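Is beta-D-galactopyranuronic acid placement plausible here? Inputs below.
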Amino acid sequence: MKRFIKVAFFMLLILVPAMLFAQAKPIVLRLAETHPKGYPTEMGDEEFARLVNVRSNGRIIIEVYPGSQLGEEKAVIEQVQFGAIDLTRVSISPLASFVPKLNAFQMPYLYRDADHMWKVLKGDIGKELLASLEPFGFIGLGWFDGGARSFYNSKKAVRTPSDLKGMKIRVQESELMLDLVRSFGAVPTPMPYGEVYSGLQTGVIDGAENNPPSYYSASHYEVAKFYTLDEHTMVPEIIVGSKISLGRLSKADQDLIKQAAFDAIDYQRTQWNAYVKLSMDKVTAAGCTIIPIPDKTEWMKTVEPMYKKQPKEVQDLVARIRAVK
Ligand code: GTR
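Reply from A.M.:
I modeled the complex. Tokens:
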């Protein structure tokens, strides 16, 4: 009898912790991020991961992989689609090649200002769009700020749209962006973000276009000193999950993840605004020529025909976005 009690006691000693451990094994999800640590979208990802961790009592861990460690955006999006990467934060530009109606959100000179854009993204239209990504293999989780994109180049001070004529301008892997650059009479060159610096340095391209945080953080300002603040697009950043991998989680866990992504927005926006200021200060101090464009009428007119070329679903969304007051 004594021996039996001893054996049972030993079994308990081994089995109970093993069972507890098995139960406590966390769900680990990988999130791909283009930008390096400390960039405002990366900080937003970290906040999102923190909220998920706290709210799930450590059951769900999101590991953020910054600096394109898991690949450039287009390749990452493909991997998310077939479940090899669980989550990513990307610009909607390359994602729109997979989900064409997203183009409505990156039309040139669409939003009156950042407040208008955020009313749209956080309101019914934004929520509807996030929910509509599932048939394409993605679960839309939340939006981050990507500010306004403007042209920069290594050759000359661009002050009017016609100054861009004939210039080779790098664009994201996005049909709409190719069309936008063509509208200005420039030659669009699609290229992954990670290759832009050397493209500018070696003269493969004359210029590119991006928001101040990217212009500064990726050091493009070192090799393209002329920055024209034409602010042609405001392109939201998006966090999406893989329908395959998040689809394996319970509905409650999926909802927890969705809510956390949405709740990380305000934190990311605060970081964003601070980083825009820091970037402008740094590039100005580095001697870049910053060209403000207070009157953008001519720029707007040049890209206006793009609106008529869009498919009906994009035109309808554009009309709804414009009607948001
Ligand atoms: C940045 C954006 C990145 C990437 C990059 C690019 O503004 O945050 O996700 O899309 O632009 O131009 O490739």
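Short version: The first helix runs from residue 2 to 24.
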